[in-house]
Amino acid sequence: MVKIAVLKETAAGETRVAASPETVKKFIALGASVSVESGAGLLASVSDAEYEAMGASVGASPAVLKDADIILGVQGPDPKALKGFAPGAWLVAGLDPFGQRARVDEYAKAGVEALAMEFMPRITRAQSMDILSSQSNLAGYKAVIEAASIYGRAFPMMMTAAGTVSAAKAFIMGVGVAGLQAIATARRLGAQVSATDVRSATKEQIESLGAKAIFVENVAGIEGEGAGGYATEMSDEYKAAQAELVSSHIAKQDIVITTALIPGRPAPRLISDAQIASMKPGSVIFDLAVAQGGNVEGSKPDEVVVKHGVKIIGYANTPAHLAADTSALFSRNLFNFLSAFWDKEAGEPVLPDDDEITAAIRLTKDGKVVNERLLA
Amino acid sequence: MVKIAVLKETAAGETRVAASPETVKKFIALGASVSVESGAGLLASVSDAEYEAMGASVGASPAVLKDADIILGVQGPDPKALKGFAPGAWLVAGLDPFGQRARVDEYAKAGVEALAMEFMPRITRAQSMDILSSQSNLAGYKAVIEAASIYGRAFPMMMTAAGTVSAAKAFIMGVGVAGLQAIATARRLGAQVSATDVRSATKEQIESLGAKAIFVENVAGIEGEGAGGYATEMSDEYKAAQAELVSSHIAKQDIVITTALIPGRPAPRLISDAQIASMKPGSVIFDLAVAQGGNVEGSKPDEVVVKHGVKIIGYANTPAHLAADTSALFSRNLFNFLSAFWDKEAGEPVLPDDDEITAAIRLTKDGKVVNERLLA
């Protein structure tokens, strides 16, 4: 019987857990045994008893890892802490392969097959396994809620006996999964919402959510869609035109949410100090890319930075601030992945070497780093 | 020329200001001069320069108060700080007459005519002067935003590739102005909203906002509407039935917002410790009445109290957390009041002794306390 181990996260500020009572139950229904480290779900509002009720055993780390075939994590565990597992065990987690490159070597040496869930290809059959998408979705929601919380005014227009309160103007920069959810949430709250992106295909999406699309037009290099639907870097001409557009638009905004990430590279700078200075005092910027270097000049993870009267915020780990929901979706992503490759006769998941998903997410195998993106 | 003085608030945690650039401009258009204490608007995002641009003089407190005919405040100033004003000057502010009863005597002795804006009668022509209503409106909004901020899950139902996130269940207790805005805001954010009140007339209002009305029925003493549309105290039978209804309903809620206040008395207890214990861990209660003794057992102003895994929050001064908007509306309330009584020939406002509003709000005159509610 294949044994699945669920570890308690050890990274600073991490509150999520890689399995929910729901997915534990489903793994057991597939024929696996599940062992959960005591307290693993506590910060995500899941007690040990809830895991036990679904049939998991709960214990200390050594017992959980002993003879484990599959180790689940939100972030990659310290390689030194990985002991006693079955030879060739899978490590299935968000492994931050570019940021934690040295760790990947250690995972190889330790003899685990490390599978980086953030390398999941953006193809239809892998959508339900995509942790970046599920976590970004809730991060986009959270960014707007926190901006609303710190903002000194209300978002919606209110008609009161004492007169009208104007709606807040919110501008979303970068319209991926997080940006789309930020648009939807800001609209829900009654803000007047505009958005921009480097991919012109998003214009329709922005407008379908009822927001105004702010686009540089007639400039070479505007089309920034790279491999797999991710953004790539733009031409210098485009960058200059974008900065100019932003400068004039941003000066009228109350709320700005930036969401621009380029995989494996520092986040692009979208807002300069001079642009911040053009904004009204009391405005709020939420930088969702702050942990990747930041879209906003001077933003700092987990700090409220005030520049020119503008409050700039952003979390080192946004999904960790909505741990109950993000954990539930993250856990489902892992379950959807493993169950899709479950071989009923073998009683365990099997990853065909020639599968597109295998090639994309497998970092290490048989003691070596094997992923193309890391070897390139 | 009548001189209006705008003081910088001195109460702990108070961030609002009693005049906005907009109302300063309007007072001057009526023929008044306006003098603003330096820094008075700073925490509400209004600079001295903005007041000056509208024609106000800005200076230190003694110069601002010197020969002032009307003194505007959000809260009542320290009577000792009131010096140099014109004899019989009006003090127009939220004076907390029951909570600060001793101060009212001091205002009388100091020779000001103290006008308590929270005693404004709930009549049609005074709606635009009603600070309780304008401030409660934004407080109701803020309560939901803060509950959403501290809650570990999202409010709206989300259909994602990794499955569905359920909508939060929010329950609003007390459907006055704050409660209605709380319902509207929680609905905007996508929560599944229910609400209750002691006044059965609110049932239709709750339902018109798309929320579910939770009412004790067929119990004597249910009709709790007192003078002026405010709630009064209920019969014991009603109280018992309400507690039972709440106990069963509340156990299923993720978010509870309590808003019940009875003027001049401690806030009624709506939620007991046992009822908190019946809620799911991770749930959030926002007690809007926390500064008046609290609707929720164990709630503390400006603290996150965790009981049975439930987070209980509430601000000592909720409107102060949305100072830009609340100040703008508060300022309009004061302007609407003064301008309604403006005597163009006299060049100043005149309060007829036989006016319903005069009788309601006037606390002191000619060195004496004259208000019926304080003398009763």
From TrEMBL, chains A, B:
Keyword set, alphabetical order: NAD, NADP, Nucleotide-binding, Oxidoreductase, Translocase
SMART domains given in the database record: AlaDh_PNT_C, AlaDh_PNT_N
Domain Alanine dehydrogenase/pyridine nucleotide transhydrogenase N-terminal stretches: 5-139
Domain Alanine dehydrogenase/pyridine nucleotide transhydrogenase NAD(H)-binding positions: 148-314
Molecular-function GO terms, alphabetical: NADP binding; oxidoreductase activity; proton-translocating NAD(P)+ transhydrogenase activity
Keyword NADP: yes
EC number per UniProt: 7.1.1.1
Its job: The transhydrogenation between NADH and NADP is coupled to respiration and ATP hydrolysis and functions as a proton pump across the membrane.
Protein name: proton-translocating NAD(P)(+) transhydrogenase
